[in-house]
Protein backbone atom coordinates (compact mmCIF):
# COMPACT_ATOMS: atom_id res chain seq x y z
CA UNK A 1 0.00 0.00 0.00
CA UNK A 2 1.59 3.31 -0.98
CA UNK A 3 1.87 6.31 1.27
CA UNK A 4 -1.01 8.19 -0.32
CA UNK A 5 -3.45 5.32 0.31
CA UNK A 6 -2.23 4.83 3.88
CA UNK A 7 -2.75 8.51 4.55
CA UNK A 8 -6.35 8.45 3.35
CA UNK A 9 -7.71 5.17 4.69
CA UNK A 10 -8.54 4.33 8.28
CA UNK A 11 -10.46 7.42 9.38
CA UNK A 12 -13.78 7.39 11.26
CA UNK A 13 -16.41 5.35 9.41
CA UNK A 14 -19.14 7.58 10.85
CA UNK A 15 -17.37 10.83 11.77
CA UNK A 16 -20.17 12.54 13.73
CA UNK A 17 -21.12 9.66 16.01
CA UNK A 18 -17.66 8.11 16.29
CA UNK A 19 -16.20 11.44 17.37
CA UNK A 20 -19.00 11.83 19.95
CA UNK A 21 -18.41 8.33 21.36
CA UNK A 22 -14.66 8.86 21.62
CA UNK A 23 -15.10 12.29 23.20
CA UNK A 24 -17.57 10.97 25.81
CA UNK A 25 -15.08 8.24 26.75
CA UNK A 26 -12.34 10.87 27.15
CA UNK A 27 -14.68 13.19 29.09
CA UNK A 28 -15.74 10.41 31.46
CA UNK A 29 -12.13 9.35 31.93
CA UNK A 30 -11.06 12.95 32.61
CA UNK A 31 -13.95 13.44 35.05
CA UNK A 32 -13.16 10.18 36.87
CA UNK A 33 -9.38 9.82 36.89
CA UNK A 34 -8.17 6.27 37.32
CA UNK A 35 -11.26 4.66 35.80
CA UNK A 36 -10.89 2.70 32.57
CA UNK A 37 -13.26 3.75 29.82
CA UNK A 38 -13.53 0.98 27.21
CA UNK A 39 -13.23 2.14 23.63
CA UNK A 40 -13.75 -0.11 20.60
CA UNK A 41 -11.61 0.39 17.51
CA UNK A 42 -12.88 3.35 15.48
CA UNK A 43 -9.78 4.34 13.50
CA UNK A 44 -7.00 2.42 11.75
CA UNK A 45 -4.02 4.75 11.61
CA UNK A 46 -0.63 3.67 10.23
CA UNK A 47 1.80 2.19 12.78
CA UNK A 48 3.20 3.10 15.23
CA UNK A 49 0.21 5.35 15.96
CA UNK A 50 -2.25 3.13 17.86
CA UNK A 51 -5.94 2.85 16.99
CA UNK A 52 -6.99 4.43 20.30
CA UNK A 53 -4.53 7.33 20.16
CA UNK A 54 -5.47 7.89 16.53
CA UNK A 55 -9.18 7.97 17.38
CA UNK A 56 -8.57 10.52 20.16
CA UNK A 57 -6.62 12.69 17.72
CA UNK A 58 -9.45 12.49 15.17
CA UNK A 59 -12.03 13.40 17.82
CA UNK A 60 -10.20 16.40 19.32
CA UNK A 61 -7.68 17.82 16.83
CA UNK A 62 -8.20 20.15 13.89
CA UNK A 63 -6.48 23.11 12.27
CA UNK A 64 -6.71 25.09 15.54
CA UNK A 65 -4.57 22.63 17.49
CA UNK A 66 -0.83 22.32 16.76
CA UNK A 67 0.28 18.72 17.29
CA UNK A 68 3.61 17.48 18.52
CA UNK A 69 4.75 13.95 17.68
CA UNK A 70 7.45 12.08 19.56
CA UNK A 71 10.45 10.83 17.50
CA UNK A 72 8.89 7.39 16.99
CA UNK A 73 5.79 8.97 15.40
CA UNK A 74 7.73 11.74 13.66
CA UNK A 75 9.87 9.24 11.74
CA UNK A 76 7.39 7.57 9.37
CA UNK A 77 5.88 9.92 6.80
CA UNK A 78 2.66 7.91 6.87
CA UNK A 79 1.69 9.00 10.40
CA UNK A 80 2.22 12.67 9.61
CA UNK A 81 0.32 12.50 6.36
CA UNK A 82 -2.53 10.47 7.96
CA UNK A 83 -2.96 13.02 10.75
CA UNK A 84 -2.61 15.85 8.26
CA UNK A 85 -5.24 14.42 5.94
CA UNK A 86 -7.80 13.51 8.60
CA UNK A 87 -7.42 16.33 11.12
CA UNK A 88 -5.71 19.19 9.27
CA UNK A 89 -3.72 19.85 12.44
CA UNK A 90 -0.39 21.62 11.87
CA UNK A 91 2.72 20.12 13.44
CA UNK A 92 4.16 22.18 16.27
CA UNK A 93 7.76 23.31 15.94
CA UNK A 94 8.49 22.76 19.62
CA UNK A 95 6.66 20.80 22.32
CA UNK A 96 5.90 24.09 24.07
CA UNK A 97 3.82 25.22 21.07
CA UNK A 98 1.67 22.09 20.99
CA UNK A 99 -1.94 21.84 22.13
CA UNK A 100 -1.77 18.06 21.91
CA UNK A 101 1.24 15.77 21.97
CA UNK A 102 1.06 12.20 20.69
CA UNK A 103 3.63 9.93 22.28
CA UNK A 104 4.17 6.35 21.11
CA UNK A 105 7.06 5.50 23.45
CA UNK A 106 6.39 7.22 26.80
CA UNK A 107 9.30 5.43 28.48
CA UNK A 108 11.72 7.41 26.32
CA UNK A 109 9.89 10.72 26.30
CA UNK A 110 11.24 14.13 27.28
CA UNK A 111 10.47 15.77 30.63
CA UNK A 112 6.87 16.81 31.28
CA UNK A 113 7.91 20.41 31.96
CA UNK A 114 9.12 20.76 28.37
CA UNK A 115 5.51 21.00 27.20
CA UNK A 116 3.34 24.07 27.42
CA UNK A 117 2.15 24.51 31.00
CA UNK A 118 -0.27 27.36 30.30
CA UNK A 119 0.05 30.65 32.16
CA UNK A 120 -1.20 31.68 35.56
CA UNK A 121 -3.81 33.87 33.81
CA UNK A 122 -4.72 31.23 31.21
CA UNK A 123 -3.90 27.80 32.67
CA UNK A 124 -6.00 26.22 29.90
CA UNK A 125 -3.32 27.06 27.33
CA UNK A 126 -1.36 23.93 28.12
CA UNK A 127 -0.46 20.77 26.25
CA UNK A 128 -2.59 17.66 26.63
CA UNK A 129 -0.42 14.54 26.30
CA UNK A 130 -1.78 11.39 24.70
CA UNK A 131 0.45 8.50 25.79
CA UNK A 132 0.27 5.11 24.11
CA UNK A 133 0.68 2.46 26.79
CA UNK A 134 0.30 -1.30 26.34
CA UNK A 135 -2.01 -1.73 29.35
CA UNK A 136 -3.09 -0.16 32.63
CA UNK A 137 -2.45 -3.11 34.95
CA UNK A 138 1.11 -4.42 34.53
CA UNK A 139 3.16 -1.34 35.45
CA UNK A 140 3.99 0.11 38.84
CA UNK A 141 0.69 0.75 40.65
CA UNK A 142 -0.26 4.39 41.21
CA UNK A 143 -2.62 5.26 44.05
CA UNK A 144 -4.65 8.27 42.95
CA UNK A 145 -6.72 10.84 44.77
CA UNK A 146 -8.22 14.21 43.94
CA UNK A 147 -11.31 15.63 42.22
CA UNK A 148 -13.33 12.98 40.40
CA UNK A 149 -12.21 10.22 42.75
CA UNK A 150 -14.50 9.34 45.65
CA UNK A 151 -11.77 7.96 47.91
CA UNK A 152 -8.83 6.52 46.02
CA UNK A 153 -8.30 4.81 42.68
CA UNK A 154 -5.47 2.66 41.43
CA UNK A 155 -4.07 2.20 37.97
CA UNK A 156 -0.80 0.61 36.94
CA UNK A 157 0.06 1.84 33.45
CA UNK A 158 2.98 0.12 31.78
CA UNK A 159 5.92 1.94 30.11
CA UNK A 160 5.40 5.25 31.86
CA UNK A 161 7.93 8.09 31.54
CA UNK A 162 11.04 7.94 33.69
CA UNK A 163 10.70 9.30 37.23
CA UNK A 164 7.02 9.75 36.53
CA UNK A 165 5.88 10.02 40.15
CA UNK A 166 8.43 12.74 40.89
CA UNK A 167 7.62 14.57 37.63
CA UNK A 168 3.92 14.37 38.39
CA UNK A 169 4.43 15.81 41.85
CA UNK A 170 6.10 18.81 40.23
CA UNK A 171 3.20 19.03 37.79
CA UNK A 172 0.79 19.14 40.77
CA UNK A 173 2.83 21.90 42.40
CA UNK A 174 2.48 24.11 39.32
CA UNK A 175 -1.34 24.11 39.67
CA UNK A 176 -3.34 25.74 38.12
CA UNK A 177 -0.68 25.46 35.41
CA UNK A 178 0.31 22.01 34.27
CA UNK A 179 -0.28 19.31 31.71
CA UNK A 180 -3.04 16.72 31.50
CA UNK A 181 -2.47 13.14 30.36
CA UNK A 182 -4.69 10.77 28.39
CA UNK A 183 -3.45 7.16 28.59
CA UNK A 184 -4.46 5.11 25.55
CA UNK A 185 -4.29 1.31 25.48
CA UNK A 186 -5.49 -0.84 22.62
CA UNK A 187 -9.07 -0.98 23.93
CA UNK A 188 -9.47 1.56 26.73
CA UNK A 189 -8.47 4.97 27.98
CA UNK A 190 -7.78 6.52 31.37
CA UNK A 191 -6.85 10.08 32.26
CA UNK A 192 -4.63 11.90 34.70
CA UNK A 193 -5.76 15.54 34.87
CA UNK A 194 -3.41 17.96 36.62
CA UNK A 195 -5.54 17.89 39.79
CA UNK A 196 -4.94 14.17 40.40
CA UNK A 197 -2.43 13.46 43.12
CA UNK A 198 -0.37 10.27 43.22
CA UNK A 199 -0.38 9.39 46.88
CA UNK A 200 2.20 6.68 47.29
CA UNK A 201 3.94 4.28 44.99
CA UNK A 202 3.46 0.72 46.13
CA UNK A 203 6.23 -1.75 45.55
CA UNK B 1 -34.46 10.66 10.68
CA UNK B 2 -35.33 12.39 7.39
CA UNK B 3 -36.50 15.66 8.91
CA UNK B 4 -33.20 16.24 10.70
CA UNK B 5 -31.09 15.65 7.61
CA UNK B 6 -30.79 19.37 6.93
CA UNK B 7 -28.88 19.88 10.19
CA UNK B 8 -25.78 18.20 11.48
CA UNK B 9 -26.58 15.96 14.45
CA UNK B 10 -27.26 18.20 17.48
CA UNK B 11 -27.26 21.36 15.32
CA UNK B 12 -23.60 22.42 15.77
CA UNK B 13 -21.01 21.71 13.08
CA UNK B 14 -18.21 19.29 13.94
CA UNK B 15 -15.45 21.87 14.24
CA UNK B 16 -17.50 23.86 16.75
CA UNK B 17 -18.18 20.70 18.75
CA UNK B 18 -14.46 19.85 18.82
CA UNK B 19 -13.65 23.37 20.06
CA UNK B 20 -16.29 23.14 22.81
CA UNK B 21 -15.22 19.59 23.71
CA UNK B 22 -11.62 20.73 24.17
CA UNK B 23 -12.83 23.56 26.42
CA UNK B 24 -14.90 21.07 28.47
CA UNK B 25 -11.86 18.82 28.98
CA UNK B 26 -9.77 21.79 30.18
CA UNK B 27 -12.60 22.86 32.46
CA UNK B 28 -12.74 19.40 34.05
CA UNK B 29 -8.95 19.39 34.48
CA UNK B 30 -9.00 22.83 36.21
CA UNK B 31 -12.18 22.74 38.36
CA UNK B 32 -13.76 26.16 38.80
CA UNK B 33 -11.57 27.91 36.19
CA UNK B 34 -13.54 29.65 33.43
CA UNK B 35 -12.27 28.43 30.07
CA UNK B 36 -12.83 30.94 27.24
CA UNK B 37 -14.52 29.44 24.17
CA UNK B 38 -15.75 30.73 20.82
CA UNK B 39 -19.47 30.77 21.60
CA UNK B 40 -21.69 30.53 18.54
CA UNK B 41 -24.96 32.18 17.68
CA UNK B 42 -27.75 29.74 18.37
CA UNK B 43 -31.30 29.81 17.02
CA UNK B 44 -32.44 31.46 20.26
CA UNK B 45 -31.41 34.71 21.90
CA UNK B 46 -28.51 35.09 24.32
CA UNK B 47 -29.95 34.80 27.79
CA UNK B 48 -32.12 31.84 26.84
CA UNK B 49 -29.49 29.29 27.69
CA UNK B 50 -27.26 29.32 24.61
CA UNK B 51 -24.22 28.37 26.71
CA UNK B 52 -25.95 25.35 28.19
CA UNK B 53 -27.39 24.41 24.80
CA UNK B 54 -23.94 24.48 23.19
CA UNK B 55 -22.46 22.32 25.95
CA UNK B 56 -25.34 19.84 25.72
CA UNK B 57 -25.10 19.75 21.91
CA UNK B 58 -21.38 18.96 22.14
CA UNK B 59 -21.69 16.07 24.58
CA UNK B 60 -25.02 14.50 23.58
CA UNK B 61 -25.20 11.22 21.65
CA UNK B 62 -28.08 9.22 20.19
CA UNK B 63 -28.32 7.00 23.30
CA UNK B 64 -28.68 9.86 25.78
CA UNK B 65 -31.89 10.67 27.61
CA UNK B 66 -32.31 14.41 28.10
CA UNK B 67 -34.16 16.30 30.82
CA UNK B 68 -34.42 20.09 30.76
CA UNK B 69 -35.57 22.17 33.72
CA UNK B 70 -36.17 25.87 34.14
CA UNK B 71 -36.20 26.95 37.82
CA UNK B 72 -36.92 23.34 38.67
CA UNK B 73 -39.90 23.01 36.34
CA UNK B 74 -40.07 20.75 33.28
CA UNK B 75 -43.05 22.56 31.81
CA UNK B 76 -42.05 26.22 31.54
CA UNK B 77 -41.22 27.99 28.27
CA UNK B 78 -37.44 27.73 28.36
CA UNK B 79 -37.46 24.04 29.33
CA UNK B 80 -40.12 23.07 26.80
CA UNK B 81 -38.46 24.86 23.90
CA UNK B 82 -34.95 23.56 24.60
CA UNK B 83 -36.31 20.02 25.01
CA UNK B 84 -38.17 20.40 21.70
CA UNK B 85 -35.00 21.78 20.10
CA UNK B 86 -32.98 18.68 20.98
CA UNK B 87 -35.81 16.35 20.02
CA UNK B 88 -35.76 17.98 16.61
CA UNK B 89 -32.04 18.38 15.92
CA UNK B 90 -30.67 15.33 17.75
CA UNK B 91 -33.71 13.05 17.85
CA UNK B 92 -32.89 11.92 21.39
CA UNK B 93 -35.20 10.49 24.01
CA UNK B 94 -36.43 13.11 26.48
CA UNK B 95 -37.82 12.65 29.96
CA UNK B 96 -39.03 14.63 32.93
CA UNK B 97 -37.84 12.01 35.43
CA UNK B 98 -34.56 12.94 37.07
CA UNK B 99 -33.47 9.35 37.68
CA UNK B 100 -33.94 8.31 34.04
CA UNK B 101 -32.00 11.18 32.49
CA UNK B 102 -28.34 10.88 31.46
CA UNK B 103 -28.01 14.60 30.70
CA UNK B 104 -29.95 17.23 32.65
CA UNK B 105 -29.77 20.78 31.36
CA UNK B 106 -30.83 23.21 34.03
CA UNK B 107 -31.59 26.85 34.49
CA UNK B 108 -30.99 27.83 38.11
CA UNK B 109 -31.91 24.68 40.07
CA UNK B 110 -30.48 21.30 40.99
CA UNK B 111 -33.11 18.54 41.12
CA UNK B 112 -34.23 17.40 44.58
CA UNK B 113 -33.79 13.73 43.63
CA UNK B 114 -30.12 12.85 44.31
CA UNK B 115 -28.01 12.67 41.16
CA UNK B 116 -26.00 9.54 40.48
CA UNK B 117 -22.67 8.68 38.90
CA UNK B 118 -22.83 8.80 35.13
CA UNK B 119 -25.29 11.67 34.99
CA UNK B 120 -24.19 15.04 33.61
CA UNK B 121 -25.76 18.26 34.89
CA UNK B 122 -25.42 21.17 32.40
CA UNK B 123 -26.02 24.64 33.84
CA UNK B 124 -27.08 27.70 31.85
CA UNK B 125 -25.01 30.56 33.23
CA UNK B 126 -25.71 34.27 32.63
CA UNK B 127 -22.67 35.86 34.38
CA UNK B 128 -19.89 33.30 34.97
CA UNK B 129 -17.53 35.72 36.72
CA UNK B 130 -18.28 35.84 40.48
CA UNK B 131 -16.17 39.01 40.83
CA UNK B 132 -17.79 40.89 37.94
CA UNK B 133 -20.06 43.14 40.01
CA UNK B 134 -17.14 43.97 42.28
CA UNK B 135 -14.60 44.59 39.50
CA UNK B 136 -15.93 45.24 35.97
CA UNK B 137 -12.59 44.89 34.16
CA UNK B 138 -11.91 41.42 32.77
CA UNK B 139 -8.14 42.06 32.85
CA UNK B 140 -8.37 42.69 36.60
CA UNK B 141 -10.63 39.77 37.50
CA UNK B 142 -8.38 37.45 35.48
CA UNK B 143 -5.41 38.65 37.51
CA UNK B 144 -7.36 38.21 40.74
CA UNK B 145 -8.08 34.59 39.84
CA UNK B 146 -4.46 34.05 38.78
CA UNK B 147 -3.16 35.38 42.10
CA UNK B 148 -5.94 33.77 44.14
CA UNK B 149 -6.79 37.26 45.40
CA UNK B 150 -10.33 36.90 46.70
CA UNK B 151 -10.29 39.40 49.56
CA UNK B 152 -12.79 41.60 47.72
CA UNK B 153 -15.41 38.85 47.80
CA UNK B 154 -15.02 38.51 51.56
CA UNK B 155 -15.34 42.27 51.92
CA UNK B 156 -18.60 42.11 49.98
CA UNK B 157 -19.95 39.37 52.26
CA UNK B 158 -18.76 41.35 55.29
CA UNK B 159 -20.59 44.47 54.06
CA UNK B 160 -23.74 42.35 53.87
CA UNK B 161 -23.31 41.51 57.55
CA UNK B 162 -22.57 45.15 58.45
CA UNK B 163 -25.75 46.32 56.69
CA UNK B 164 -28.18 43.47 57.27
CA UNK B 165 -26.74 41.57 60.19
CA UNK B 166 -26.35 38.46 58.03
CA UNK B 167 -24.99 37.44 54.62
CA UNK B 168 -27.90 38.61 52.43
CA UNK B 169 -26.77 36.86 49.24
CA UNK B 170 -29.45 34.27 48.50
CA UNK B 171 -28.64 33.12 44.97
CA UNK B 172 -25.40 32.91 42.93
CA UNK B 173 -23.76 32.47 46.32
CA UNK B 174 -19.99 32.28 45.71
CA UNK B 175 -18.22 28.99 46.33
CA UNK B 176 -14.58 27.96 46.53
CA UNK B 177 -13.65 24.89 44.48
CA UNK B 178 -10.99 22.49 45.78
CA UNK B 179 -9.53 25.30 47.88
CA UNK B 180 -8.45 27.28 44.80
CA UNK B 181 -10.89 29.01 42.44
CA UNK B 182 -13.85 31.09 43.60
CA UNK B 183 -16.72 30.16 41.30
CA UNK B 184 -20.21 31.41 40.54
CA UNK B 185 -22.57 28.45 40.93
CA UNK B 186 -24.91 30.23 38.43
CA UNK B 187 -28.03 31.88 39.90
CA UNK B 188 -29.17 28.77 41.75
CA UNK B 189 -30.64 29.51 45.17
CA UNK B 190 -28.01 29.00 47.86
CA UNK B 191 -30.27 26.16 49.00
CA UNK B 192 -28.65 24.10 46.21
CA UNK B 193 -25.02 24.91 47.02
CA UNK B 194 -24.54 21.92 49.37
CA UNK B 195 -25.73 19.60 46.57
CA UNK B 196 -22.75 20.65 44.46
CA UNK B 197 -20.28 19.53 47.13
CA UNK B 198 -18.89 16.09 46.23
CA UNK B 199 -21.79 15.33 43.90
CA UNK B 200 -21.39 11.97 42.14
CA UNK B 201 -22.53 13.60 38.87
CA UNK B 202 -20.36 15.62 36.50
CA UNK B 203 -21.38 19.30 36.47
CA UNK B 204 -20.71 21.47 33.41
CA UNK B 205 -21.42 25.21 33.18
CA UNK B 206 -21.92 27.07 29.90
CA UNK B 207 -22.19 30.85 29.51
CA UNK B 208 -23.01 31.64 25.87
CA UNK B 209 -23.03 35.44 25.83
CA UNK B 210 -19.98 35.66 28.12
CA UNK B 211 -18.20 32.86 26.21
CA UNK B 212 -17.04 30.81 29.16
CA UNK B 213 -17.23 27.12 30.08
CA UNK B 214 -16.33 25.73 33.49
CA UNK B 215 -16.80 22.43 35.25
CA UNK B 216 -16.93 20.49 38.49
CA UNK B 217 -15.81 16.86 38.24
CA UNK B 218 -17.64 14.39 40.51
CA UNK B 219 -16.53 14.30 44.15
CA UNK B 220 -15.06 17.81 44.06
CA UNK B 221 -14.97 19.96 47.18
CA UNK B 222 -17.33 22.93 46.75
CA UNK B 223 -17.40 25.13 49.84
CA UNK B 224 -19.68 28.17 50.17
CA UNK B 225 -17.74 31.21 51.39
CA UNK B 226 -18.58 32.32 54.92
CA UNK B 227 -17.11 33.51 58.22
CA UNK B 228 -16.47 31.57 61.42
CA UNK B 229 -19.02 33.67 63.32
CA UNK B 230 -21.45 33.81 60.36
CA UNK B 231 -21.44 30.28 58.96
CA UNK B 232 -23.13 29.50 55.63
CA UNK B 233 -26.81 28.59 55.99
CA UNK B 234 -29.40 27.51 53.43
CA UNK B 235 -32.92 28.88 53.21
CA UNK B 236 -35.51 27.19 55.40
CA UNK B 237 -39.27 27.23 54.94
CA UNK B 238 -41.75 27.30 57.79
CA UNK B 239 -44.39 25.33 55.91
CA UNK B 240 -44.31 22.24 53.68
CA UNK B 241 -45.25 22.17 49.97
CA UNK B 242 -48.99 22.96 49.59
CA UNK B 243 -49.44 20.22 46.99
CA UNK B 244 -47.26 17.30 48.13
CA UNK B 245 -46.42 18.23 51.75
CA UNK B 246 -42.69 17.83 51.11
CA UNK B 247 -40.32 19.32 53.66
CA UNK B 248 -36.66 20.24 53.25
CA UNK B 249 -37.14 21.07 49.58
CA UNK B 250 -36.92 24.43 47.80
CA UNK B 251 -40.35 26.09 47.51
CA UNK B 252 -41.71 28.71 45.10
CA UNK B 253 -44.39 31.19 46.12
CA UNK B 254 -47.41 31.07 43.81
CA UNK B 255 -49.92 33.94 43.87
CA UNK B 256 -53.49 32.60 43.79
CA UNK B 257 -55.67 35.72 43.57
CA UNK B 258 -55.48 39.50 43.95
CA UNK B 259 -56.50 39.42 47.62
CA UNK B 260 -53.14 38.26 48.93
CA UNK B 261 -53.86 34.54 48.56
CA UNK B 262 -50.73 32.54 47.91
CA UNK B 263 -49.22 29.13 48.42
CA UNK B 264 -45.76 27.61 48.56
CA UNK B 265 -45.12 24.68 46.23
CA UNK B 266 -42.10 22.57 45.25
CA UNK B 267 -39.92 24.31 42.68
CA UNK B 268 -38.95 20.85 41.36
CA UNK B 269 -42.11 19.79 39.49
CA UNK B 270 -40.91 16.23 38.84
CA UNK B 271 -40.26 15.71 42.54
CA UNK B 272 -43.66 17.14 43.45
CA UNK B 273 -45.57 15.05 40.89
CA UNK B 274 -43.77 11.89 41.99
CA UNK B 275 -44.70 12.49 45.60
CA UNK B 276 -48.34 13.17 44.74
CA UNK B 277 -48.43 9.98 42.64
CA UNK B 278 -47.17 8.16 45.74
CA UNK B 279 -50.12 9.56 47.67
CA UNK B 280 -48.57 12.46 49.57
CA UNK B 281 -51.04 15.31 49.78
CA UNK B 282 -50.59 18.91 50.83
CA UNK B 283 -53.40 21.08 52.23
CA UNK B 284 -54.18 22.62 48.80
CA UNK B 285 -53.80 19.51 46.65
CA UNK B 286 -56.65 18.94 44.13
CA UNK B 287 -58.85 15.88 44.49
CA UNK B 288 -58.32 14.55 40.95
CA UNK B 289 -55.06 12.77 40.20
CA UNK B 290 -52.95 14.58 37.61
CA UNK B 291 -51.84 13.28 34.26
CA UNK B 292 -48.08 12.93 34.28
CA UNK B 293 -45.78 13.61 31.39
CA UNK B 294 -43.48 10.65 30.93
CA UNK B 295 -40.44 9.64 29.00
CA UNK B 296 -40.71 10.01 25.23
CA UNK B 297 -38.42 7.69 23.27
CA UNK B 298 -36.50 8.81 20.20
CA UNK B 299 -38.51 8.47 16.99
Keywords:
heterodimer, A: 203 residues, alpha/beta, 6-stranded mixed sheet, 3-stranded antiparallel sheet, 29% helix, B: 299 residues, 7 helices, 12 strands
3D architecture notes:
- With 203 residues, chain A is an alpha/beta fold.
- Chain A contains six helices and nine strands.
- In chain A, the strands form two sheets. In chain A, strands 1-8-7-4-3-2 form a six-stranded mixed sheet. A three-stranded antiparallel sheet of chain A has the order 6-5-9.
- In chain A, strand 7 (180-184) and strand 8 form a beta hairpin.
- By secondary structure, chain B is an alpha/beta fold.
- Helices cover 25% and strands 17% of the residues of chain B.
- The longest helix of chain B has 16 residues, at 14-29.
- The interface between A and B is large, with 39 and 44 residues.
- What structural class do you assign from the helix and strand content of chain A? alpha/beta
Tell how many strands the DSSP assignment of chain A holds.
Answer: 9
Largest sheet geometry of chain B: 7 strands, mixed
The helical percent of chain A reads: 25-40%
Helix fraction of chain B? 25-40%
Tally the helices of chain A.
6
In short:
By secondary structure, chain A is an alpha/beta fold. Chain A has 6 helices and 9 strands, in the order H-H-E-H-E-H-H-E-E-E-E-H-E-E-E. Chain A has helices spanning 3-8, 15-31, 51-60, 71-74, 77-87, 164-173; strands spanning 37-38, 67-69, 100-103, 128-132, 142-145, 153-155, 180-184, 188-192, 197-201.
